[in-house]
Amino acid sequence: MKQPMGLTQKILLAMFLAIITGLVANLSLGMSDWFDVLAKDWLAGGLFFVMGKIFVATLKVLVVPMVFVSLVCGAASLGDSKQLGRLGGKTILLYLFTTAVAISMAMLLALWFQPGVGADLHSTNPVAISEGSSFAQVLINIFPTNPISAMAEGKMLQIIVFALLLGVAINHSGQAGERLKANFEDWNEVVMKLVTLLMKLAPYGVFALLFNLIVDKGIGAIDELFVYFLTVVLVLIIHACVVYPALLVSLAKLNPIIFFTKMRNVQLFAFSTASSNATLPITMRAVEERLGVDNRIASFSLPLGATLNMDGTAIMQGVATVFIAQAYGIDLSAIDYLTVIATATLASIGTAGVPGVGLVMLSLVLTQVGLPVEGIALIIGVDRLLDMLRTAVNVTGDATVSCIVAKSENQFDQSRFNDMEAGLVEEKV
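-> structure tokens emitted (429 positions)
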């Protein structure tokens, strides 16, 4: 009997069909008025636009309740406050370390490939980019004044802080805490089940998002920025396929092949949505049910990673900084490069995991070393394509750190990790 097609295969098929049909539509634009109306207005701007928005919305609707409920459950299950502090310290240090490695490697390879040398892009129209907050203000904004408002506005770090405080309070509240903890655990089960149900929409959402992107951008946007585009992609691949596996092997003694095999769905979701936050429900399900990370670790590290860990974005910032400096003929000193590393690493704290946020962070980095913020306009044409790739790297980094921290805390199910069938029961749709 023929096995039904799994979710991963369906998503890959949807991506392939979207790229092929999108390229055909893009290359056929201008041939006739009726086809332009059909492709751009009725399909890309109509039917598939609506489908893509609905797909992303169904994922985002789960982010706040899932993060809140999971974190409360995780914090309430921790034995003591010292364990929470140790867990937080390990997680944050690993995230900051991988981010610093990412941007350092990005700038080194950019200096080697020199993507901005000879670029004649001064005439590019300026683009309006909002300025990022100062680091001090970011730290202040972590602590909520109104948790309900924070949830309504999707302010992830404030939600994380409130959930942790509530979870710790539940842990120290005796019988009342036990009753409330059981209630939250029931809610957690329901939310994760909803994630499983919504995953069935994935192939259709992926097709719609990619089709719209290809019809709009085509491959022409890459032509003028080919070396820049290639450099960013190369660094992203090296970071994902060399740095993360090295960390998994050296710090957790885990098989990277198994890890990446089980992370395929998450990476595909991240690629299609270009949003770490929108992918978070899928990431949490995969890390807990497929990779074997305990809920107490996953519920803390993954929401934090979706907000704090921006390795892919840091790579773009490193290459973009060198590119813009070269395009404008501005020499940066060794101190400037160190400033870029420090600023980009710290700027990742508190940054929302949503599409396009990397450009806001980049404006802050450029300002720190005296480069024109207007230079962002030079790269914005290909940023949407790169945003998809770097989001896939971001979520891979989140899962990597979660596995390492869980292994160090003895909160890791090795047998589940090694079992290739673990967590697959409900993946067949």
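DSSP finds 19 helices and no strands in the chain.
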